[in-house]
Amino acid sequence: MYVCARMKCLVGCAIVTGVLLQDARPASEIPLRDISVGSAIDGTFGLILSAHELRDGRILVNDPEHRRLMLWDGNLRQLTVVSDSSPGALMPYGDVPAQIIPYRGDSILFVNSVSRTLLLLDPAVKFVRAVALPHAADFRFVANSRTVADAQGRLIYRASFPPPHESFAKPAGTYVKRQPDAAPLVRADFERRTVDTLDALRIPVTESVKQTVRPDGSSSYIATFYPLDWADDWGVTSDGSVVIVRGQEYRADWIDRRGIRSSSAKMPFAWRRIGDDEKHRLADSVRVVMQAIMDTVRMESATRPRRELPLGSVSSGPMIGSFNLREGTSIALPLAAVIVAAEPSDMPDYYPAIRAGAVKTDRDGATWVLPQTTALGDSDRIIYDVVNRNGELFERVKMPTGRSIAGYGPGGQLFLMYRDDAKRWHLETGRVIR
Fold first, then answer.
1. How many structural domains is the chain composed of?
2. Which portions of the chain are predicted below pLDDT 70?
3. CA angle (299, 304, 309) in 5-degree steps
Protein backbone atom coordinates (compact mmCIF):
# COMPACT_ATOMS: atom_id res chain seq x y z
CA MET A 1 0.00 0.00 0.00
CA TYR A 2 1.35 3.43 -0.92
CA VAL A 3 1.77 5.66 2.13
CA CYS A 4 3.77 8.85 2.35
CA ALA A 5 6.24 9.34 5.20
CA ARG A 6 3.91 11.59 7.16
CA MET A 7 1.27 8.84 7.24
CA LYS A 8 3.36 5.79 8.16
CA CYS A 9 2.69 6.07 11.88
CA LEU A 10 -1.06 6.53 11.30
CA VAL A 11 -1.53 3.62 8.93
CA GLY A 12 0.98 1.43 10.75
CA CYS A 13 -1.22 1.56 13.85
CA ALA A 14 -4.34 0.55 11.91
CA ILE A 15 -5.70 -2.97 11.94
CA VAL A 16 -5.57 -4.20 8.37
CA THR A 17 -7.50 -7.28 7.31
CA GLY A 18 -7.77 -8.98 3.96
CA VAL A 19 -5.23 -10.61 1.66
CA LEU A 20 -3.54 -9.06 -1.35
CA LEU A 21 -3.80 -11.51 -4.24
CA GLN A 22 -3.73 -11.13 -7.97
CA ASP A 23 -7.29 -11.45 -9.28
CA ALA A 24 -7.23 -14.76 -11.12
CA ARG A 25 -10.49 -14.19 -12.99
CA PRO A 26 -9.78 -13.88 -16.73
CA ALA A 27 -10.84 -10.56 -18.22
CA SER A 28 -12.78 -12.48 -20.88
CA GLU A 29 -15.20 -13.74 -18.19
CA ILE A 30 -16.19 -10.23 -17.09
CA PRO A 31 -19.46 -9.33 -18.88
CA LEU A 32 -19.61 -6.13 -20.93
CA ARG A 33 -22.99 -4.40 -20.52
CA ASP A 34 -24.73 -1.74 -22.56
CA ILE A 35 -27.09 0.98 -21.34
CA SER A 36 -30.64 1.62 -22.44
CA VAL A 37 -31.51 5.32 -22.69
CA GLY A 38 -34.82 6.41 -21.17
CA SER A 39 -36.49 9.80 -20.68
CA ALA A 40 -34.82 13.15 -21.37
CA ILE A 41 -35.11 16.13 -19.06
CA ASP A 42 -36.94 18.97 -20.78
CA GLY A 43 -34.20 21.62 -20.92
CA THR A 44 -30.64 22.45 -21.88
CA PHE A 45 -27.65 23.39 -19.77
CA GLY A 46 -24.45 25.36 -20.11
CA LEU A 47 -22.67 22.63 -18.15
CA ILE A 48 -23.72 19.83 -15.80
CA LEU A 49 -21.68 19.36 -12.65
CA SER A 50 -24.02 16.81 -11.06
CA ALA A 51 -27.57 15.43 -11.02
CA HIS A 52 -29.13 14.04 -7.85
CA GLU A 53 -32.49 12.30 -7.46
CA LEU A 54 -34.43 12.91 -4.25
CA ARG A 55 -36.53 10.20 -2.63
CA ASP A 56 -39.77 11.57 -4.11
CA GLY A 57 -38.37 11.38 -7.65
CA ARG A 58 -37.47 15.05 -8.15
CA ILE A 59 -34.13 15.75 -9.84
CA LEU A 60 -31.71 18.43 -8.61
CA VAL A 61 -29.31 19.59 -11.34
CA ASN A 62 -26.25 21.78 -10.84
CA ASP A 63 -25.34 23.98 -13.84
CA PRO A 64 -22.18 25.96 -12.97
CA GLU A 65 -21.91 27.55 -16.41
CA HIS A 66 -25.22 29.40 -15.93
CA ARG A 67 -24.65 29.51 -12.15
CA ARG A 68 -27.97 27.87 -11.40
CA LEU A 69 -29.26 25.09 -9.17
CA MET A 70 -32.48 23.69 -10.68
CA LEU A 71 -35.13 21.27 -9.49
CA TRP A 72 -37.31 19.18 -11.82
CA ASP A 73 -40.44 17.33 -10.78
CA GLY A 74 -40.79 13.56 -11.07
CA ASN A 75 -42.13 13.87 -14.63
CA LEU A 76 -38.96 15.75 -15.70
CA ARG A 77 -41.00 18.66 -17.05
CA GLN A 78 -41.70 21.28 -14.37
CA LEU A 79 -38.72 23.41 -13.34
CA THR A 80 -38.04 25.36 -10.15
CA VAL A 81 -34.88 27.49 -9.85
CA VAL A 82 -33.42 26.95 -6.39
CA SER A 83 -30.39 29.21 -6.72
CA ASP A 84 -29.08 31.51 -9.44
CA SER A 85 -26.98 34.61 -9.96
CA SER A 86 -29.79 37.10 -10.64
CA PRO A 87 -29.84 40.33 -8.58
CA GLY A 88 -31.76 39.90 -5.34
CA ALA A 89 -31.75 36.08 -5.46
CA LEU A 90 -32.79 34.58 -2.11
CA MET A 91 -29.90 32.13 -2.34
CA PRO A 92 -27.24 33.52 -4.70
CA TYR A 93 -25.22 30.90 -6.53
CA GLY A 94 -21.91 32.79 -6.61
CA ASP A 95 -19.36 33.44 -9.32
CA VAL A 96 -17.60 30.06 -9.22
CA PRO A 97 -18.84 26.47 -9.63
CA ALA A 98 -20.55 25.32 -6.43
CA GLN A 99 -21.00 21.77 -5.17
CA ILE A 100 -24.10 20.12 -3.84
CA ILE A 101 -23.51 17.40 -1.23
CA PRO A 102 -26.33 14.88 -0.59
CA TYR A 103 -26.74 14.83 3.18
CA ARG A 104 -28.75 13.06 5.89
CA GLY A 105 -32.49 12.54 5.56
CA ASP A 106 -32.67 13.62 1.91
CA SER A 107 -31.32 17.07 2.78
CA ILE A 108 -28.62 18.82 0.74
CA LEU A 109 -25.56 20.88 1.60
CA PHE A 110 -24.92 23.68 -0.90
CA VAL A 111 -21.31 24.89 -0.88
CA ASN A 112 -21.84 28.62 -1.19
CA SER A 113 -18.82 30.72 -2.18
CA VAL A 114 -20.68 33.98 -1.48
CA SER A 115 -20.97 33.35 2.27
CA ARG A 116 -18.11 30.82 2.41
CA THR A 117 -20.38 28.48 4.33
CA LEU A 118 -22.41 25.35 3.72
CA LEU A 119 -26.11 26.07 3.29
CA LEU A 120 -28.41 23.30 4.53
CA LEU A 121 -31.43 22.65 2.31
CA ASP A 122 -34.28 20.53 3.68
CA PRO A 123 -35.98 17.71 1.69
CA ALA A 124 -38.22 20.34 0.10
CA VAL A 125 -34.97 22.01 -1.10
CA LYS A 126 -35.62 25.10 1.02
CA PHE A 127 -32.88 26.93 2.90
CA VAL A 128 -32.82 25.97 6.61
CA ARG A 129 -29.59 27.33 8.05
CA ALA A 130 -25.89 27.83 7.46
CA VAL A 131 -23.47 25.15 8.66
CA ALA A 132 -19.89 25.98 9.66
CA LEU A 133 -17.07 23.53 9.03
CA PRO A 134 -15.10 22.35 12.10
CA HIS A 135 -12.01 23.94 10.51
CA ALA A 136 -13.02 27.11 8.68
CA ALA A 137 -9.79 27.09 6.64
CA ASP A 138 -10.89 23.80 5.04
CA PHE A 139 -13.63 25.57 3.07
CA ARG A 140 -11.22 25.87 0.12
CA PHE A 141 -10.82 22.07 0.01
CA VAL A 142 -14.55 21.44 0.24
CA ALA A 143 -15.32 24.08 -2.39
CA ASN A 144 -12.66 23.06 -4.91
CA SER A 145 -12.70 19.26 -4.82
CA ARG A 146 -15.16 16.42 -4.41
CA THR A 147 -16.78 16.21 -0.97
CA VAL A 148 -19.07 13.38 0.20
CA ALA A 149 -21.15 12.95 3.35
CA ASP A 150 -21.19 9.54 5.04
CA ALA A 151 -24.16 7.94 6.83
CA GLN A 152 -23.29 9.76 10.08
CA GLY A 153 -23.30 13.16 8.36
CA ARG A 154 -19.53 13.54 8.45
CA LEU A 155 -17.89 15.16 5.42
CA ILE A 156 -15.06 13.37 3.65
CA TYR A 157 -12.76 15.33 1.37
CA ARG A 158 -9.17 15.64 0.24
CA ALA A 159 -7.04 18.23 2.02
CA SER A 160 -3.31 18.94 1.79
CA PHE A 161 -0.33 18.42 4.03
CA PRO A 162 1.25 21.60 5.48
CA PRO A 163 4.04 22.75 3.16
CA PRO A 164 7.58 22.50 4.52
CA HIS A 165 9.06 25.68 5.88
CA GLU A 166 11.09 27.47 3.24
CA SER A 167 13.36 30.42 3.83
CA PHE A 168 12.98 33.14 1.22
CA ALA A 169 16.65 34.14 1.31
CA LYS A 170 18.81 31.24 0.11
CA PRO A 171 22.58 30.98 -0.14
CA ALA A 172 24.15 30.40 -3.57
CA GLY A 173 23.35 26.96 -4.91
CA THR A 174 20.72 24.88 -6.72
CA TYR A 175 17.32 24.05 -5.22
CA VAL A 176 14.56 21.84 -6.64
CA LYS A 177 10.96 22.25 -5.52
CA ARG A 178 8.44 19.59 -6.56
CA GLN A 179 4.76 19.33 -5.94
CA PRO A 180 3.83 16.95 -3.12
CA ASP A 181 2.99 13.44 -4.31
CA ALA A 182 0.49 12.73 -1.52
CA ALA A 183 -2.50 14.35 0.14
CA PRO A 184 -4.58 13.35 3.17
CA LEU A 185 -8.13 12.09 2.85
CA VAL A 186 -9.87 13.59 5.87
CA ARG A 187 -13.20 13.37 7.68
CA ALA A 188 -14.91 16.34 9.34
CA ASP A 189 -17.28 15.62 12.24
CA PHE A 190 -19.80 18.43 12.87
CA GLU A 191 -20.92 17.13 16.26
CA ARG A 192 -17.43 16.71 17.71
CA ARG A 193 -16.03 19.68 15.76
CA THR A 194 -13.01 17.59 14.77
CA VAL A 195 -11.19 16.68 11.57
CA ASP A 196 -9.27 13.39 11.43
CA THR A 197 -7.13 11.82 8.71
CA LEU A 198 -8.39 8.59 7.16
CA ASP A 199 -5.53 7.76 4.82
CA ALA A 200 -3.09 9.17 2.27
CA LEU A 201 -3.82 9.47 -1.44
CA ARG A 202 -1.21 9.39 -4.16
CA ILE A 203 -1.66 12.52 -6.29
CA PRO A 204 -0.01 13.29 -9.63
CA VAL A 205 3.12 15.41 -9.66
CA THR A 206 2.71 17.66 -12.69
CA GLU A 207 5.52 20.18 -12.26
CA SER A 208 8.81 20.99 -10.57
CA VAL A 209 10.98 24.11 -10.50
CA LYS A 210 14.78 24.18 -10.26
CA GLN A 211 16.12 27.44 -8.85
CA THR A 212 19.76 28.40 -9.22
CA VAL A 213 20.86 31.15 -6.83
CA ARG A 214 23.92 33.04 -8.00
CA PRO A 215 26.52 34.55 -5.64
CA ASP A 216 25.08 38.03 -6.23
CA GLY A 217 21.67 36.83 -4.94
CA SER A 218 19.91 36.77 -8.31
CA SER A 219 18.18 33.60 -9.47
CA SER A 220 17.33 31.69 -12.62
CA TYR A 221 14.55 29.10 -12.88
CA ILE A 222 13.87 26.00 -14.98
CA ALA A 223 10.33 24.55 -14.87
CA THR A 224 9.55 20.97 -15.86
CA PHE A 225 6.02 19.71 -16.50
CA TYR A 226 5.14 16.01 -16.34
CA PRO A 227 2.33 14.68 -18.56
CA LEU A 228 1.71 11.46 -16.60
CA ASP A 229 1.95 10.26 -13.02
CA TRP A 230 0.26 7.77 -10.71
CA ALA A 231 -2.96 8.72 -8.93
CA ASP A 232 -5.31 7.23 -6.34
CA ASP A 233 -8.99 8.09 -6.19
CA TRP A 234 -11.78 7.48 -3.69
CA GLY A 235 -15.48 7.38 -2.97
CA VAL A 236 -18.04 6.53 -0.28
CA THR A 237 -20.27 3.53 -0.95
CA SER A 238 -23.95 3.32 -0.04
CA ASP A 239 -23.15 1.21 3.05
CA GLY A 240 -20.93 4.01 4.40
CA SER A 241 -17.56 2.45 3.56
CA VAL A 242 -14.77 4.57 2.15
CA VAL A 243 -13.19 2.99 -0.93
CA ILE A 244 -9.75 4.04 -2.18
CA VAL A 245 -8.71 2.74 -5.61
CA ARG A 246 -4.91 2.52 -5.77
CA GLY A 247 -3.88 3.49 -9.26
CA GLN A 248 -0.44 1.91 -9.26
CA GLU A 249 -1.73 -1.56 -8.32
CA TYR A 250 -5.33 -1.23 -9.54
CA ARG A 251 -6.92 -2.57 -6.38
CA ALA A 252 -9.27 -1.24 -3.71
CA ASP A 253 -8.63 -0.43 -0.05
CA TRP A 254 -11.64 -0.14 2.26
CA ILE A 255 -12.46 1.60 5.53
CA ASP A 256 -15.86 0.47 6.82
CA ARG A 257 -18.23 2.37 9.13
CA ARG A 258 -16.50 0.87 12.18
CA GLY A 259 -13.08 2.01 10.99
CA ILE A 260 -11.89 -1.52 10.09
CA ARG A 261 -9.54 -1.55 7.12
CA SER A 262 -9.21 -4.18 4.42
CA SER A 263 -7.56 -4.55 1.02
CA SER A 264 -8.99 -6.35 -1.99
CA ALA A 265 -7.19 -8.32 -4.67
CA LYS A 266 -5.66 -6.64 -7.67
CA MET A 267 -8.18 -6.30 -10.48
CA PRO A 268 -7.50 -7.33 -14.08
CA PHE A 269 -6.28 -4.42 -16.16
CA ALA A 270 -4.97 -3.89 -19.70
CA TRP A 271 -1.66 -2.21 -18.82
CA ARG A 272 -0.23 -0.29 -21.76
CA ARG A 273 3.51 0.24 -21.89
CA ILE A 274 4.93 3.67 -22.85
CA GLY A 275 8.06 3.63 -25.01
CA ASP A 276 10.67 6.40 -24.90
CA ASP A 277 9.49 7.84 -28.22
CA GLU A 278 5.96 8.19 -26.89
CA LYS A 279 7.27 9.67 -23.64
CA HIS A 280 9.19 12.30 -25.61
CA ARG A 281 6.08 13.13 -27.65
CA LEU A 282 3.86 13.47 -24.57
CA ALA A 283 6.43 15.52 -22.66
CA ASP A 284 7.02 17.89 -25.57
CA SER A 285 3.30 18.41 -26.18
CA VAL A 286 2.87 19.48 -22.54
CA ARG A 287 5.91 21.76 -22.83
CA VAL A 288 4.40 23.49 -25.89
CA VAL A 289 1.07 24.06 -24.12
CA MET A 290 2.68 25.41 -20.95
CA GLN A 291 5.02 27.63 -22.96
CA ALA A 292 2.02 29.16 -24.74
CA ILE A 293 0.34 29.82 -21.38
CA MET A 294 3.53 31.36 -20.01
CA ASP A 295 3.93 33.60 -23.07
CA THR A 296 0.33 34.81 -22.74
CA VAL A 297 0.74 35.60 -19.04
CA ARG A 298 4.01 37.43 -19.73
CA MET A 299 2.32 39.65 -22.31
CA GLU A 300 -0.59 40.40 -19.99
CA SER A 301 1.78 41.11 -17.12
CA ALA A 302 3.76 43.58 -19.24
CA THR A 303 0.66 45.72 -19.80
CA ARG A 304 -0.36 45.91 -16.15
CA PRO A 305 0.89 48.71 -13.91
CA ARG A 306 3.51 47.58 -11.41
CA ARG A 307 2.85 48.05 -7.72
CA GLU A 308 5.50 49.52 -5.48
CA LEU A 309 6.60 47.09 -2.78
CA PRO A 310 6.44 48.18 0.87
CA LEU A 311 9.70 49.41 2.35
CA GLY A 312 11.87 46.49 3.45
CA SER A 313 10.08 43.82 1.43
CA VAL A 314 11.82 41.55 -1.08
CA SER A 315 10.60 40.17 -4.40
CA SER A 316 11.94 37.47 -6.70
CA GLY A 317 10.07 38.98 -9.65
CA PRO A 318 6.59 38.43 -11.10
CA MET A 319 5.06 35.01 -10.45
CA ILE A 320 2.44 33.01 -12.28
CA GLY A 321 -0.26 31.35 -10.19
CA SER A 322 -1.34 27.75 -9.99
CA PHE A 323 -1.42 25.83 -13.28
CA ASN A 324 -2.86 22.70 -11.70
CA LEU A 325 -6.09 24.13 -10.31
CA ARG A 326 -7.87 20.76 -10.31
CA GLU A 327 -5.35 19.21 -7.94
CA GLY A 328 -4.71 22.40 -5.99
CA THR A 329 -1.07 21.52 -5.46
CA SER A 330 0.79 23.68 -7.96
CA ILE A 331 3.75 25.79 -6.96
CA ALA A 332 4.30 29.44 -7.76
CA LEU A 333 6.33 29.85 -10.93
CA PRO A 334 8.39 32.96 -11.79
CA LEU A 335 7.55 34.43 -15.17
CA ALA A 336 11.24 34.37 -16.05
CA ALA A 337 11.35 30.57 -15.82
CA VAL A 338 12.52 28.51 -18.79
CA ILE A 339 10.06 25.72 -19.67
CA VAL A 340 11.63 22.34 -20.48
CA ALA A 341 10.18 18.91 -21.30
CA ALA A 342 10.33 16.07 -18.80
CA GLU A 343 12.89 13.33 -19.31
CA PRO A 344 11.61 9.80 -20.07
CA SER A 345 13.27 8.55 -16.89
CA ASP A 346 10.99 10.88 -14.87
CA MET A 347 7.83 9.31 -16.31
CA PRO A 348 6.18 5.95 -15.56
CA ASP A 349 6.81 3.04 -17.92
CA TYR A 350 3.08 2.27 -18.14
CA TYR A 351 0.05 4.49 -18.55
CA PRO A 352 -1.42 5.02 -15.08
CA ALA A 353 -4.55 2.96 -14.53
CA ILE A 354 -6.71 5.92 -13.49
CA ARG A 355 -6.73 9.69 -13.29
CA ALA A 356 -7.87 11.78 -10.35
CA GLY A 357 -11.68 11.90 -10.43
CA ALA A 358 -12.00 8.43 -11.96
CA VAL A 359 -14.04 6.83 -9.15
CA LYS A 360 -17.82 7.13 -8.68
CA THR A 361 -20.14 5.22 -6.36
CA ASP A 362 -23.77 4.42 -7.13
CA ARG A 363 -26.68 4.11 -4.72
CA ASP A 364 -26.75 0.31 -4.86
CA GLY A 365 -23.34 -0.41 -3.32
CA ALA A 366 -21.13 -0.58 -6.42
CA THR A 367 -18.02 1.43 -7.25
CA TRP A 368 -17.56 2.62 -10.84
CA VAL A 369 -13.98 3.16 -12.02
CA LEU A 370 -13.06 4.83 -15.30
CA PRO A 371 -9.75 3.32 -16.48
CA GLN A 372 -7.33 5.47 -18.43
CA THR A 373 -6.65 2.69 -20.97
CA THR A 374 -8.72 -0.24 -22.17
CA ALA A 375 -8.28 -3.15 -24.56
CA LEU A 376 -11.95 -3.10 -25.56
CA GLY A 377 -11.81 -0.47 -28.32
CA ASP A 378 -14.66 1.98 -28.99
CA SER A 379 -12.59 5.12 -28.42
CA ASP A 380 -15.74 7.28 -28.64
CA ARG A 381 -17.55 5.30 -25.92
CA ILE A 382 -16.63 5.42 -22.25
CA ILE A 383 -16.28 2.03 -20.55
CA TYR A 384 -16.47 1.76 -16.74
CA ASP A 385 -15.16 -1.06 -14.57
CA VAL A 386 -17.82 -1.82 -11.93
CA VAL A 387 -16.56 -3.21 -8.62
CA ASN A 388 -18.55 -4.83 -5.79
CA ARG A 389 -17.97 -4.49 -2.03
CA ASN A 390 -15.51 -7.42 -2.12
CA GLY A 391 -13.30 -5.49 -4.53
CA GLU A 392 -14.19 -7.78 -7.43
CA LEU A 393 -14.57 -6.38 -10.93
CA PHE A 394 -17.88 -8.08 -11.76
CA GLU A 395 -18.93 -6.22 -14.91
CA ARG A 396 -17.94 -3.54 -17.37
CA VAL A 397 -20.46 -0.96 -18.57
CA LYS A 398 -20.26 0.79 -21.93
CA MET A 399 -21.77 4.26 -22.17
CA PRO A 400 -23.84 5.21 -25.23
CA THR A 401 -21.87 7.23 -27.78
CA GLY A 402 -20.97 10.69 -26.48
CA ARG A 403 -22.49 10.04 -23.04
CA SER A 404 -20.99 10.19 -19.57
CA ILE A 405 -22.44 9.83 -16.07
CA ALA A 406 -23.84 12.90 -14.29
CA GLY A 407 -25.25 11.01 -11.30
CA TYR A 408 -27.01 7.94 -9.98
CA GLY A 409 -30.56 7.33 -8.89
CA PRO A 410 -31.98 4.54 -6.71
CA GLY A 411 -32.70 1.10 -8.12
CA GLY A 412 -29.97 1.19 -10.74
CA GLN A 413 -31.04 4.38 -12.51
CA LEU A 414 -28.34 6.50 -14.16
CA PHE A 415 -28.33 10.13 -15.27
CA LEU A 416 -26.45 10.55 -18.54
CA MET A 417 -25.21 13.82 -19.97
CA TYR A 418 -24.16 14.71 -23.49
CA ARG A 419 -23.39 17.83 -25.53
CA ASP A 420 -24.98 18.68 -28.85
CA ASP A 421 -23.41 20.41 -31.87
CA ALA A 422 -24.34 23.81 -30.41
CA LYS A 423 -22.31 22.92 -27.29
CA ARG A 424 -25.41 22.79 -25.11
CA TRP A 425 -25.59 20.03 -22.53
CA HIS A 426 -28.55 17.67 -22.14
CA LEU A 427 -29.59 15.20 -19.44
CA GLU A 428 -31.38 11.88 -19.82
CA THR A 429 -32.03 8.76 -17.77
CA GLY A 430 -30.62 5.31 -18.43
CA ARG A 431 -30.26 1.79 -17.04
CA VAL A 432 -27.70 -0.98 -17.42
CA ILE A 433 -28.98 -3.84 -19.59
CA ARG A 434 -28.43 -7.08 -17.67
1. 1
2. 1-28, 165-168, 304-332, 375-380
3. 120
